[in-house]
Structure formats: structure tokens, C-alpha cells
Write a structure and sequence with these properties.
The complex is a heterodimer of chains A (about 90) and B (about 260). Chain A is of the alpha+beta class and about 90 residues long. Helix content of chain A is about 55%, strand content about 20%. Chain A is built from 4 helices and 4 strands, in the order H-H-H-E-E-E-E-H. The longest helix of chain A has 19 residues. Chain B has about 260 residues and is of the alpha/beta class. Chain B has one domain: 3-Layer(aba) Sandwich (Rossmann fold). Chain B is about 40% helix and about 15% strand. In chain B, helix 7 links the parallel strand 6 and strand 7. The chains are: A alpha+beta (about 90), B alpha/beta (about 260). Bound molecules: adenosine-5'-triphosphate (ATP) and magnesium ion. Magnesium ion binds next to helix 1 of chain B.
């Protein structure tokens, strides 16, 4: 409410809200970008788990982070050929 | 068994030493036995901020090198019962001490004190690993500006990694006026970004500078805003439930706006 009335009066956005927005973005990146080794490990372990259920070539798994605005998404790409027949193993 | 609390920050100069001195004194004024430990080897300051610089004979380095007993290296603050200081060596540098040696000192101190407060150097390097080696808890000090908060987040990550908890935040040099006119982030903004528990807010206060000049921690004369803030934080540390007051000062314009737009 405050803000919209201020905007009616043609006020510039508060510098504190700009600071907060910029910080949120940069900290999300700081938190996630630090650890390349963790990403490699994740990719490796993910591949191991997925291999139990699906048939695919081991090197095709791609794990990456996508930043969009203020949020960050973990994306895992694994083009699989077909699912294992799990009933056989039972 | 006492609690070992490391007082740390990412960015330098945000008020770790000021906070350690005042919280240590405040806890002693509340009747606790306290030792404040300067872990800023090579750049020691806690002694001069406390006004004890002329009485330092031995440092933690002497204890590690077995030049003296730990108890002999503790300087008693004569102004209040139960407060002592363990100074850092000014001649050595951070690499001369191992984290395990700091941990051994903290473990000994905790058996004879209610609180062991460790004043850490800024940053994420060796100084931090030494200062935090013996800690069970951490207080992260930050000022409400972008670089200090960004660096605070980095140090919080390291503290979490070292499995030290709880981690509590102190926001220092808070200016109610600047928050009121929208030029400084308020406590909700900072908490939203850093996502750890808030232990207290210390306002910007010229009394901090004059008390440092004199070597008399602010909390001895409980008159200024910052002294009150530090006393409240110390009480919270002892487990008392003290609400964190809303320091924000509404400007005239905001007050009028709030009056018009207030919710019934
Ligand atoms: N609440 C406050 N109001 C006004 N000045 C303050 C406040 N807190 C700290 N200061 C001033 O800021 C300066 C830095 O404080 P201090 O030495 O406690 O920071 P520090 O984090 O220990 O620094 P370093 O990283 O170098 O060890 C000092 O000059 C101190 O007087
Ligand atoms: Mg300091």
C-alpha cells in the first residue's frame, strides 16, 4: 500500500529494496556456484542410481543449474533408452 | 560445562571486537564467569578495546609454547567479578597456531567458565578455522549493507559446514533513521536473505567510539542505545526471553502515510 501511493507521487524505488533484490540474486549464485566438486559427485551418484532403473549411456547425464530471476533450478538431463524390467529382479 | 561461542564475520570492521568486549562484560555483569579470547593473532585489539592493554604479560602463544600455564595467561578485569581476557600474540601470525591447539585451550577454559567468547579475525581463511576450532556456537556479526551481508552468508556456509550450531546473527550499526527513509535494509530484509536466527540489533552509536577511546566497554554505563542492545543480547544468551524491539524510526512522511493507510 505504502509503495503504491509513493509510486503515485513519482518516487524512485527505495534503495534498500534494490539492495535486497541484488543481494538475494548474488547470494543464490554464491551458495550454488562455490561447489563444482559437489556437482560432479552429484552427477556421478545420480548416474549410478538411475542406471538401476533405466538403460542409457553412462556419459549422457548432464546436471546443471539454471538461474531465472530470483530463483535457481537444478536440471538433470538423461536421455534414456528404455526402463529396466524390474519385475525380473524380484 | 561452559559454552564456547565464536564471534565472527565475513567482512572486516563490522564490530566483532566491539561485540565480544561488550557481550563478555555484560555477561559478567549478569553474574556469569566469562573469558574473552582474542583469536586475531598478529592483529590483536580486544585488549585495547577492553582497556587492559597495559596488563598483558602472556598470550595464548605462550600457553601453546608451554612458556606459562593457561591460568597465568588470563588477565583479570578488576572492574567486574568473573571476567578475564586471554590475549593474542602480536608478534606471531595466524599460521603459527593450529586449530587443534586452539581447541585444546577452549576445552580447558570451558571447564572453568560459564562462557568462552572467541573474537575471530574477519574472513574465511586460517584465522577463522583457528578461532572456530573449539566453538560449539557462533555469533555472526554483520552491518546492514550489501557487502557485509554477502560475506556473512559465505561465513555462515563455512560455519554450517563445520557443524557449529546454533548460529545467531547480530546486526550492528543499524540506523533507525536510514531504515525509516528507505536507504537501509531493515531486520526483516536481512533475516530473509541470511535465514538464521536473530540474536539482536545494535544501533549505530557514537558512544561506541568514545568508549573504545577510553577502554571502557559501553555496557558499564548502561545509558546509550548500543549499551542497552548489548545488555539485552547478553540476557538472551543466558536464556532469558527478551523480545527484539522494533528500532525502525518512521519518518514524518511515512508516519502520515501509515496513519492514512493504517489497518483497523
Ligand atoms: N554500533 C556501532 N556504532 C558506531 N561505531 C561502531 C559500532 N560498532 C563498531 N563501531 C566502530 O567500527 C569500528 C570497527 O569495529 P570493530 O573493531 O569492533 O570491528 P571488527 O569486526 O572487530 O574489525 P576487524 O575485522 O578489523 O577485527 C570501530 O572503530 C568501532 O568503534
Ligand atoms: Mg576485531
Amino acid at each position: 500500500m505504502n509503495i503504491s501511493i509513493r509510486q503515485l507521487f513519482g518516487r524512485k524505488p527505495k534503495s534498500s529494496s534494490i539492495a535486497k533484490q541484488r543481494l538475494k540474486l548474488v547470494i543464490t549464485q554464491d551458495r550454488l556456484d562455490v561447489d563444482d566438486r559437489m556437482m560432479m559427485r552429484l552427477q556421478h551418484e545420480l548416474t549410478e542410481v538411475l542406471a538401476k532403473y533405466f538403460e542409457f549411456s553412462m556419459n549422457s547425464v548432464q546436471v546443471s543449474l539454471k538461474h531465472e530471476g530470483n530463483s535457481c533450478t537444478l536440471v538433470a538431463d538423461f536421455p534414456y533408452k528404455k526402463a529396466h524390467d524390474l519385475s525380473v529382479n524380484r | 560445562m561452559g559454552r564456547v561461542i565464536v564471534v565472527t564475520s565475513g567482512k572486516g570492521g563490522v564490530g566483532k571486537t566491539t561485540s565480544t568486549a561488550n557481550l563478555g562484560t555484560a555477561l559478567a555483569l549478569l553474574g556469569k564467569t566469562v573469558v574473552i579470547v582474542d583469536a586475531d593473532v598478529g592483529l590483536r585489539n580486544l585488549d585495547i578495546v577492553m582497556g587492559l592493554e597495559s596488563r598483558i604479560v602472556y598470550t595464548s602463544m605462550d600457553v601453546i609454547d608451554k612458556h606459562c600455564e593457561l591460568s597465568k595467561a588470563l588477565v583479570r578485569d578488576r572492574r567486574v567479578d568473573g571476567l578475564t581476557l586471554l590475549a593474542a600474540s602480536q608478534k606471531n601470525n595466524k599460521d603459527d597456531i593450529q586449530p587443534a591447539q586452539m581447541k585444546a585451550i577452549c576445552d580447558k577454559l570451558r571447564s572453568t567458565h560459564d562462557f568462552v567468547l572467541v573474537d575471530s579475525p574477519a574472513g574465511i581463511e586460517r584465522g577463522f578455522s583457528n578461532a572456530s576450532a573449539g566453538a560449539d556456537e557462533a555469533i555472526v556479526v554483520t552491518t546492514p549493507d550489501v557487502s557485509a551481508i554477502r560475506d556473512a552468508d559465505r561465513i555462515i556456509g563455512l560455519i554450517q559446514h563445520a557443524r557449529i550450531e546454533p548460529i545467531n546473527l547480530v546486526i550492528n550499526r543499524f540506523s533507525p533513521e536510514l531504515v525509516g527513509n528507505g536507504s537501509m535494509m531493515d531486520q526483516a530484509d536481512v533475516m530473509d536473505i541470511l535465514n538464521i536466527d536473530l540474536l539482536g540489533i545494535v544501533p549505530e552509536d557514537t558512544g561506541v567510539i568514545t568508549s573504545t577511546n577510553r577502554g571502557i566497554p559501553l555496557v558499564y554505563e548502561e545509558t546509550s542505545a548500543a549499551a542497552h542492545a548489548y545488555m539485552r543480547i547478553a540476557r538472551r544468551l543466558t536464556g532469558q526471553q527478551i523480545p527484539i524491539p522494533d528500532l525502525e524510526q518512521k519518518g514524518l512522511f511515512t508516519s502520515i502515510l501509515n496513519w492514512f493507510t493504517r489497518k483497523s
